[in-house]
């Protein structure tokens, strides 16, 4: 995975992201319009942060997105090309989102994950996310429930030992 780099998502990444999105999430894929809307808020001072993982040849092999409003963050999406899953790229993308949410002063980070996606749930648990609820029928049209998970960040100034 060392040759894969993370960088901010740009408009020209939407098509390769959509290729992955449709392959990985055929039943509940986001639309191009949704990604355009998300990227419109991914600017300095905006409420969104999107990252892509690119192979050395520039191929997009993963992506992740974050929304922050005040002290609350929400993992919007995270995906890794199924041909390279299990090599730490999901953890790298999640680390990016966790660090960005902390840098933006979030005290909590939430996410929804399919109840049948145990691999992703294990990843989130390794990062300290804990189940806090269930959203019934969240993933449509398959009508699959979502497990809601939360990671609590310490208050922003609590990280500075001079303020502790």
UniProtKB/TrEMBL annotation:
GO molecular function: protein-N-terminal-alanine acetyltransferase activity
Keyword line: Acyltransferase, Cytoplasm, Ribonucleoprotein, Ribosomal protein, Transferase
Matching SUPFAM superfamilies: Acyl-CoA N-acyltransferases (Nat) (SSF55729)
The UniProt record lists the keyword Chaperone: no
Protein name: Ribosomal protein S18-alanine N-acetyltransferase
A Gene Ontology cellular-component term: ribosome
Superkingdom of origin: Bacteria
Name of one Pfam family that matches: Acetyltransf_1
Ranges of residues in domain N-acetyltransferase: 4-154
Enzyme superclass (EC): transferase
């Amino acid at each position: 995975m060392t040759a894969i780099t993370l960088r901010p998502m740009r408009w020209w990444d939407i098509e390769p992201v959509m290729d992955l999105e449709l392959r990985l999430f055929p039943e509940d894929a986001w639309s191009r319009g949704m990604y355009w809307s998300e990227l419109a808020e991914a600017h300095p001072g905006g409420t969104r942060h999107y990252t892509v993982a690119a192979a050395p040849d520039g191929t997009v092999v993963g992506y992740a997105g974050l929304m922050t409003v005040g002290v609350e963050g929400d993992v919007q999406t995270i995906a890794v090309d199924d041909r390279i899953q299990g090599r730490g790229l999901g953890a790298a993308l999640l680390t990016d989102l966790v660090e960005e949410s902390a840098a933006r002063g979030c005290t909590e980070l939430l996410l929804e994950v399919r109840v049948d996606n145990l691999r992703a749930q294990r990843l989130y648990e390794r990062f300290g996310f804990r189940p806090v609820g269930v959203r019934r029928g969240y993933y449509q049209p398959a009508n699959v429930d979502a497990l809601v998970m939360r990671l609590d960040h310490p208050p922003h100034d609590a990280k500075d030992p001079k303020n502790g």
